[in-house]
Prior knowledge:
By secondary structure, this protein is mainly α. The protein is built from 14 helices and no strands. It has helices at about 1-25, 35-60, 65-85, 90-115, 120-135, 160-180, 180-190, 195-200, 205-230, 240-255, 260-280, 280-285, 285-300, 315-330. Helix 2 (about 35-60) packs antiparallel against helix 9 (about 205-230) and helix 3 runs parallel beside helix 5. GO terms for molecular function: branched-chain amino acid transmembrane transporter activity.
Amino acid sequence: MAPVRKQAFAPAAAAAVLYLGLAWLRQAGFIGIYWGQIMDLALITTIQAVGLSLIYGFAGQFSLGHAAFYGLGAYVAAFVTRAFGGNTLTFALALAAGAATAGLVALLIGLPILRLRSDYLGIATLGFGIIVKVLLDNADKLSPVLGGARGMAGIPRLTTFHWVFWLAVLSVWLARNLVRSSHGRSCIAVREDEVAADIMGLDTTQFKTLAFVVGCAMAGLAGGLYAHLYSFLHPSSFDFLKSFDVLLVVVLGGLGSLTGTVVTAIGWVFLLEALRGVLGQQFLDWRGVVYALVLIVLMILRPQGLMGGREISLDGVLGRAAARGGAGRGAA
């Protein structure tokens, strides 16, 4: 049992060491305020991308409305802190409210639309994303605080590196455990062949809904963090292109690979910011063309993505190292 406990403890210890190291670099000034904020955005994008990876990468449900749930979580969380004050307790409640709202809405729309398959599901989620965008544009008719097309300002800046780091770790841990559970394996079976899974007695709609709700709740959580990082929200931040951004991250990382999703999400955010700093407004004008070219080249050269469905885990590395050490001692 001792090796098992060590392997279970190792990822948590590694996360703590990484957190302390990054926090020290930021505190000492080696990572400036600007790039520290980009790091926070990269971790928020990681949470959002891990949610879509559950939906598309592991359950095989092609969703084009992920930014809609991102926006719902952002606006609900911002509304809570605007209404009840900006302290640690209300911030935690706001994040929970944003994630719960996104998950509940995903459940309500998922039950009817997840009976669709392939392109039809993508069109349905795209339509829902457009509905949410129009709703946010006219949200000031529901409450003047929401701002409508002018945007929502005055949001307290409560998102810190501590919050985004540990919530990103929690999201990856939850996704990993879900994928390795019997429910996660059922979702993978639905992805591989939904007809065969249905014939074998799996309630395919139930497992698709499970992945959809959990993934959208993660998007809502990421939205709440985003709202309190920049203190301003605008409906244009949650349009179709934002859904395409996170979809591109999941495809680039490799469908069915949490490791690929995490690495690509962090690298993608830093790469885009570096390109924006070098090329300026020209990059923003041609960003859509760059995204399309990257996707086309990837599909031609490496259609399975960067990781190709493989995972890299610390407990797996330690397990292989222990096995090699045991084999070496046995040979000796």
